[in-house]
Amino acid sequence: MMRVIKLLCFASVLVLLTPLVLYPQSQSVHIGFVLDGPWERNEGILSLFQSEIQSLLERDYRLDFNPDNIVISDWKRKNIKAEIEKMLSDSKIDIVVTLGAVGSDIVTHMNNLSKPVIAPFVANVEIQGVPYDEGISGVRNLTYIPIGYNFAGVLDIYRDVVPFERIAFIWPRLIIENIPALLIKHKHSFEDVDIEVIQLAVGETAEEALAAIPDDVDAVHVGVMIGMPEDELDKFIQGLIDRNIPGFAYMGRTDVERGLLAGLGEGIDIQRVARRTALNIQRILMGEEASRIPVTLNRRNLLYINVSTARQLDISPGWEVMTEAILLQETREKVAREMNLPKVTRQALDANLDLASMYHEVEAGEKEVALARANLLPRIDLSATGLMIDDDRAEASFGAQAERTISASASATQLIFSEQAWANLGIQGHLHKSRQAELRRLRLDIIQQASTAYLRLLTAKTLENIRQDNVSLTRSNLQLARTRQAIGLSGPGEVYRWESQLATSRQQAVDANAERNVAEIAVNRIINRPAEESFSTEETDIDDFIQEHISSLLSEYVGNKASFKIFRKFMVEEAFANSPELNALDEAIAAQKRRLKSTTNAFWAPQLALKGEITKKFSEEGAGTSGLTIPIQGFEMPQQDDLNWSIALNLSYPLFAGGQKFHKRAQASEELKKLQAQRKALADKIEQRVLSALHRAGASWAGIGFSRDAAKAAHQNLELVTDAYSRGVVSVIDLLDAQNAALVADLTAANAKYEFLIDIIDVQRASGKFYYLTGTDLEADFLQRLKAYYDEYAKLNQSGN
């Protein structure tokens, strides 16, 4: 019994201790930072590294950033080394981080490191002779992060931007004095390049740096100007522009935005380096040996070009360069037009030539109604006649016709009853309403075309950016392949494979640019602007549009299969009520019914008209003015005066016309049946169009989220495969597959949002009204009817009907 109690007690103790073994209490971690020397950016860099470390590790560890463990040295190598050794010997510090190029160079050449050291600013592994063993340092307690790139490999890229034969590499003197190998060994990188390279170490002022550049230099590559104040760096960059010297930025986008002509990538992506440092600290604290941590950091070589600087230097890079580069400071002075989705639709309705033509057609059709009505109104005619005949004929008329006569007449005619005229008035009225419905149809078509064209343009612009990014990624992988070849991990075949892939990617980028231009031309045509007139687009309004108008609608009414079915029924009814195509056919059917009625009435209905006329002779001259008078006893001949009038009532009825009445009635009957069949077929088509558009929109709505998840996963996989490729673990085919998968995922994700909106546009066009583009009142009315429809449907279900 006692033995059982002891076993139970032992088991209880194990249960209590197990959480402590598996999940140790957070331990204190003391991190020391060594900075090379005073610099304006020190505070920001230190704060960023501490923030990244804190956000990653604070849940599991108590981090100590004691100010005493932060040392800013004096830019002297021996003193920096002394500060590092002091931290290595300090038992209160667990990990040392060297936040500077000099300190990173020092620790990578030290032996017997007593504690883990991270060197996140190694400029060039090969030139500095930094230990490298198949993707790791191989030195106990040492890991580092390389931040540089192959300078010789990027010169061809820069020469695509602007040709040059002699280039000066500008180094900060503070770095070169402490790492002389960068200047001495760096020149060997250009032995196989047909460009003359000059290397210069400059001080902290723009004046000194500019004075050091020879007059016959064609271009300048500007390094990380440590020690040069920000205002002096700006003066230096402006000085290069003033001397008409194109400058290339080691810092990539950062210094391109300041005014240098071009640069690759984000330069030294400090945030990414800081995040990698935090991850390395985490791996060390979890028990991994620092020497086994991968030391690769792949640099995305996106090409950035400062368009404003290029304009000042009168440089116009080639077509291929401009299609794959990211353009900065692109001040588009001549582009006064800014377009968004509502603007495009409004301008299309105001200026589209097809719509303008249709407006005139409707106006002309309205006159057909007026002409039909005119047949039922009184008709008044006035005429005047001046007549001259030969004198012998006038003499022979015995006064009946003078040689010269001037007379005038007036007549009035009123159609009292005419079945054909009244029928024509009714028919033309219906036909005019049909033309008005056709005008509404064309307006809807123009809105759909303009909206779709604009969304296709946004799609093309997004795909162009993705293709450009893919070119830059391919360039990065090409440089990675060259690095693998240089260190013996692969042969020249991989380099050739990436060079082939780069050519293909560049062609795809050019094609994407052409598609974007074609899409812009399509938008300009629809809004009746010059075909190649430039305009800017507002892409941010699309996400706002989806969020504001569509997301809540879909989540509330299309959230499940049953609700979606009700919504489809509602939209079909909306389409039947709003469809201008159905309305046009309805009016055509009404006109044909009136025509059929008229052909039937023609069998019995006569035409009745009243006409009056008055004529007066104003003058008779010449021969024949005196008539012959024959006296008769007891009777005086009446004399005709100069004024004559008449009035007549006419009744006509066509009794037989070769059977036309029967044939016209039969023809009208068949025409009516044809139109009625067309209406039934059109209603079926409209229902199909509405339902199809809704199903496509539902699928594309779900596709937005799925495609985003796929793109995120593809990029995560690409990052892992790229890292493995850099360490020689996977082949070039694996990386190509991963890159292509990420590219396809990006293209799909980019398409998804715009395809969904195009589907929504199709839904609205099928329903006969654009609720989300023509005003908030119409949208509110639509939502109110929708809610009432759902409420009524719920009541019917509750009542069991």
Please describe what this structure looks like.
With 801 residues, the chain is α/β, with parallel strands linked by helices. It has a seven-stranded mixed β-sheet with strand order 8-7-9-10-11-12-13, sandwiched between helices. Helix 2 packs across helix 12 (270-285), helix 18 packs antiparallel against helix 24 and helix 22 runs antiparallel to helix 23. The longest helix has 68 residues, at 419-486. It is elongated, with a radius of gyration of 45 Å.
Taking the sheet with the most strands, its summary is: 7 strands, mixed
Structural class of the helix and strand makeup? alpha/beta
Strand order in space, largest sheet: 8-7-9-10-11-12-13
Q: What value does the average pLDDT take?
A: 81
- List the uncertain runs: 1-25
Residues in β-strands, percent: 5-15%
Query: Counting H and I runs of at least 4 residues, what is the number of helices?
Result: 25
What is the first-to-last residue Cα distance?
Answer: 75 Å
Specify the helix fraction band: 55-70%
Strand count: 19
Oligomer: single chain
Q: What would you call the shape?
A: elongated
Q: Mind telling me the C-alpha Rg?
A: 45 Å
List the main descriptive attributes of the protein structure presented here.
801 residues; alpha/beta; 7-stranded mixed sheet; 6-stranded parallel sheet; 25 helices; 58% helix; elongated; disordered N terminus
